[in-house]
Amino acid sequence: MKTKTIQLIVMVLLVLGFTGCDKVSDLNTVTFDADFAASLDCSTAALKSTAENHAFSGTAVIDPASDTNVSDYLDNIKKYEVEAVHATITSMSQENVTVFTATLDVFNAGRETGWSMTNEVLTTGKTITLGNENGQWDTVSEILKDGQVFTVQINGEADTGSVTFTLRVRIETKVEAKVI
After folding, report:
1. What is the pTM of this model?
2. DSSP string over 24-90
3. Which of 56, 43, 82, 40 is nearest to 168 (CA)?
4. Tens-digit pLDDT profile for residues 142-169
5. d(Cα 111, Cα 139) in Å, to the nearest integer?
6. How crowded is the C-beta side of 77, counted as CA atoms within 13 Å?
7. 17 confidence band (pLDDT: 50, 70, 90)
8. How would you label 3-33 residue by residue, b for 16+ Cβ within 10 Å and e otherwise?
9. Which residues pair with 80 in a beta bridge?
């Protein structure tokens, strides 16, 4: 009987010990939201008498350390979890421009991912949600985890020339980092 009681006490202590280790580990971890954004200034090529498609492009860089929480924990970040990626038209010199094709890429020196768009009608305030159909968010998470400045770039063709617009790309994340 004593042996069974001792075994039960040892089992309870082991369970509490393992649970306690998890609690200590939890105390050493902080989780916070961090958004990364950049504005891409774009302009379509000027009108040409024979051109139906007008090329455009825009590029901006994002420094993950520009977020104060990320900067505080930069060397101790365990992971980034991308929760959403959006592209919003914040200004246009002319409304209702149709983008025939475009690619929006996010990349650093070692990784790259992107999204394709076709036949998008652009107006000020329009937001395009960029999905994770091909694992793009996972790659963006890895790019962020690299801790380096990275580039957001768009290239495409539109139906109207001599148009300027600004595309604001926003990456919403949840960050997990070690406190110590």
Report:
1. 0.83
2. HHHHTEEEEEEEEEEEEEEEPPPP-TT-S-EEEEEEEEE-GGGSHHHHHHGGGEEEEEEEEEEEEEE
3. 40
4. 999 999 999 999 999 999 999 999 999 9
5. 7
6. 27
7. low
8. eeeeeeeeeeeeeeeeeeeeeeeeeeebeee
9. 175
